[in-house]
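Support case: user asked for a sample of complex input and structure output to validate their parser. Sending the pair below.
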Amino acid sequence: MSEKRKWRMTRRGFLIGVGATGTTLALGVAFGLPYGRIRLADMFENSAGAPASMDAPPNAWFEISADNQVKLFIPKVEMGQGVHTALAQLAAEELEIDWAQLSVVQATTALGPFDSRGTSASNSVSSLWVPLREAAATMREMLRTEAAKLLNLPAAQLQLESGVFSNDNARLTYGEVVSRVSSWTVPEAKPPLKDPSTFRYIGQPVPRVDLPDKIVGKAIYGYDMRLPGMLYGAVARPPTLGATLRRVAAGEAASKPGVVTVVAEPDFAGVVAESRQAAYQGVFAMSLEWNETQRWQQADIERLITVGEGTGVTIQRLGDAPDQLRIIGTLRAEYRTPMAAHAHLEAQAALADVQPDGVKIWASTQFPDMVRGEVATLLKRDKATIEVIPTYLGGGFGRKSGVEPALEAARLSAAAGKPVHVGWSRTEDFLHGYLRPPTHHVLRGNVNADGRMWAFEHQQASGHVAAEFLPGFLMAIFGADFGAWRGAMIPYAATHLQTVAWRNELPLRTGWWRGLGLLANVFALESFVDELAHAAKADPLQFRLNNLPDDEKGQRLRTVLTRAAELASWNTAVPAGRARGIACCVDAGTAVAHVAEVGVEGGNIRVHKVTAVVEPGLVVNPDGATAQTQGNIVMGLSSTLLEKITVKDGQIEQGNFNQYPLLTLAETPDIHVELISRGSQPFGMGEPPMGPIAAAVANAVFALTGQRLRELPLRLTT
Amino acid sequence: MELNINGKSYTIADGPARPLLWVLRDELGLTGTKFGCGAGYCGSCTVHVEGEAKRSCITPVTEAAGKTIRTIEGLAEAGADGSLTLHPVQQAFLEMQVPQCSWCMSGQMMTAAALLESTPSPSDEQIVAAMSQNYCRCGCYVRIKAAVAQAARQMARAEEGAA
């Protein structure tokens, strides 16, 4: 598609482009942070149309062609969460087209809607729920207006189905309208959105648009990217945590077979070669000296992440919990969760092609715009000359920032003048990334004679989550790390409540991990609620129902708890040798309750069954939401039962899966998922079902064995 | 060195000793076979060598030379017109919407196809034992198990139909 377009910005903020030959119409809307609008403004200031180098519509969501096909440019990346499908459902719904008329195209930083937020925090569908449907409906109504003019009929007399306007004796497709109209007007008023009772796609288990290519091995991920003449890069890594380069020299690297370029700079040592193997061998042959710091040990990490160490900020307060927690009979318990790896099976990867007139980066990244900004700073280039093209992601889970391999590949490509691919080894990924931070929790609470929570306090300590990625001034404004306290606030109606978040610096990088603080915080909170219930001699389900607030959030939690208990036969006897545990949370707007049924086999915890009830507001794709629930439970169970990263003598001890096993099919329980669709707004589905799983299992283990396990991964003491 | 992959013959440089995986991916551009761990733990790189599931990341290319190699790109049957008839395992994985990110899925499907080749009517325990050799970080295990069972039933029906 190389035809030049005429572009126009409308009063409602839409961008309209019409192909010079009048055969395609493209419509876009800027969203996200102001930067997108600034970029648009630049474009209009600097040229009457799009920049000459742009042969496809910037910022456009849709492109309709003469053959009545619609391209949907999606700025969110597909990492298995089904977002391309869910967003296509939203668009197709308002466009009134058949599914086969729609094709999904991954947007890049130069093509398609601009998105400064990236794909994270389970908010892709919820944040685009209104803007995307409004853009689609606007396009539909513009087409309707022009069709009516062409047919010389009142717009109200036109029926619309499958992208075809018709009445008894006339018929006009979207494609035909587009090829006959060259000037378009965006309506001043927002178009009506469809009544939910007429939805065709939203709420249906529409099959994933990305699976046909994935099933035959054709889908391209960052690690798969290839270009003619490309080379491979490898980079020297610090031998211990915190080590920095003291002296860098090429050594024998240049004479190694296959080595093309050796990059020896004060802060960077890397090699470009004809194969990955040759690149790594080149790096080993470089002459490097490192400044090493203290040899950190696991005990140091745990000491730093302890309530009372570092900075504490009160994030929830009602009444005077500290005073009311002096009452005799107050329970106190401490919980810990370890560092964990993301263990996405596609290791970090990017391909960079740095040329004098422009830079292209293909990366497995959740944050294409962040990659672009960092590459621009590194290469001292104008952002506008850099295009970041996100590929499919082989797992994201918060670790696919894409920044490190992109920067490494860019640096090496700039030196070699050729496209360079950097794909990390599994060991590099384990040792040199960032981790889920360790956490420590101190909980105190008491219950009055009626079985009501009286005072409840959660003090939580964590390494950085969001702080790793935000400028210092923002952290100063927030005070606490909002990523670390996701899920930390007490959702119950105690008379006196307090939550305090402590954060501290660690000698290693920690950051986003699926759900951020959610799994750790809900594990501690919901286990402790179980402790309070048992101390009050109350049934754990009934205790929760009695103590949730009477507001909407409390009612939603009651609904999922009650339904999960019912499905799991909470009030009937458990098979011999097993017990059940229950836990719940609200996260990203979504209410979740899990019941776990566990046993003990050979001294190990065996999870037999998990019953999950999830209420994410309106369910856009029930099969996708079910898959996300199943996947979150499995990933959460892997953390609950197995996963732990430790530090010894300044190094992370786990370098591959033999030292960091993941849950397999053999340990996977039967998982029964029920979704409750409610209201007219969808909430998050990518992470919330992770929240309660560890606590549900730990509570079941207590019911079975009397052992209250307060540390992940859960280990029975025999 | 000659490699026979998916019914086609490829000539590659003798070169240094190297794993089959990187020959497939980097030298021949067959990127459907995925790199996961490089040490044979995760199963993402599973291919068939003489019909058996092998981890290509720890299989020296010299060991595969002269043998019949099949990768995910050759699991479906290609017609003369280029159309693909999916293998029953692929068909079941698609129908049951098994993959999420799908990075592990080439390996999962190759493992499943090899299992059904050697054990046409596997028990649940046999499916679990075979498929527990492969990691899936997105946690698609419930669906993997169901899809392998469905593919087995489908293949049994096709076998009956042919008999």
